[in-house]
Amino acid sequence: MYFQKSDADISDKQGKTVMEDRPKPAHAGSPVHAVWILTILIQGLFPVLAHGQITELDPLDPESRREMYDFEEMEARWDHSVAFGLTLATGNSDVFLVNASYFADRRGTENEISLGLDVNYGQESGQRSAESYNSYFQYNRLLTTDRFFAYMRTSFMRDVIAELDYRIGTGPGFGFYVIHDDNQSLSVEIGGSYIVEKQGFFKDNYASARLGQKYQKQFNERVRLWQAVEILPQIDDLNNFYMFAEIGVEAQFTDSISFRVRLQDIYDNTPFIGRKSNDLRLITGLSYYF
């Protein structure tokens, strides 16, 4: 620390002269001073970067801070759920069928993320009768209003019985919320996807369009319904297309546990040799939210 003498001399009782020492302010180039200046600049520039214009928001005022920083977006939390269903039967035929799924969802004022994983496995009379895996990830970026959004979606599918080793699709698109409130939502999506797949001993990759529609209705705190449709036609061969449709209803027993029923229809217009185009599944089970 640096000190300097004052201009005034003070004499003590013995007649001696003592120079008054006073602390000198920290040098302008010190780290403390630099941090202080940087803090002021950040507080002043953040509204410009966030809103694209100069504002008169006070960083110390709670209302101004809420406007400067999107707390609703920052505090948006993940909703997770896992579900499990089991079917056992014996008699003329022994049937064993299990379904397990995981879904996660995060919705903020500007960003929405959803992902899921669905696994089905079954045996009948000791022979494998079902084995499929489906997963997806989708990110939505809300644009000018809370209605329009751009999205990026990736999906994976495998169905051993249908001789589908894998089908991977990735692509961007745009969507619009026809209805978007606390109790229900209806959205439509249009975009593209690049498909890489192996079906039997055939490998293929191609560009496809993607048309999607989703609906969700919250009847009350305990009961909700949802429905979704997705169609992916190959751009240069519309005869080659894939469709997935689902409708489901869920009733909550507690805040964490609910009973879920889903009906799925999976249609492949060009199935592998000897396989059917349509698969229909009715899935029931308990789900747990955390």
Quickly name the level 1 CATH class of the largest domain. Answer: Mainly Beta
What CATH calls the topology of the largest domain is Porin
Helix/strand-derived category reads mainly beta
The CATH level-2 architecture of the largest domain is identified as Beta Barrel
Termini Cα gap: 55 Å
Explain briefly what this protein structure is.
The chain is mainly beta. The protein has three helices and 14 strands. Strands 3-4-5-6-7-8-9-10-11-12-13-14 form a twelve-stranded antiparallel β-barrel.
Any overview of this molecule?
This protein is mainly β and 290 residues long. It folds into 2 domains: 12-69, no CATH class; 73-289, Beta Barrel (Porin). It has helices spanning 31-51, 62-68, 71-74; strands spanning 3-11, 17-23, 78-89, 95-107, 111-124, 127-142, 148-159, 164-180, 184-199, 202-218, 223-234, 237-252, 257-268, 278-289.
Please write out the topology.
Elements lengths: L2 E9 L5 E7 L7 H21 L10 H7 L2 H4 L3 E12 L5 E13 L3 E14 L2 E16 L5 E12 L4 E17 L3 E16 L2 E17 L4 E12 L2 E16 L4 E12 L9 E12 L1
Antiparallel strand pairs: 1-2, 3-4, 3-14, 4-5, 5-6, 6-7, 7-8, 8-9, 9-10, 10-11, 11-12, 12-13, 13-14
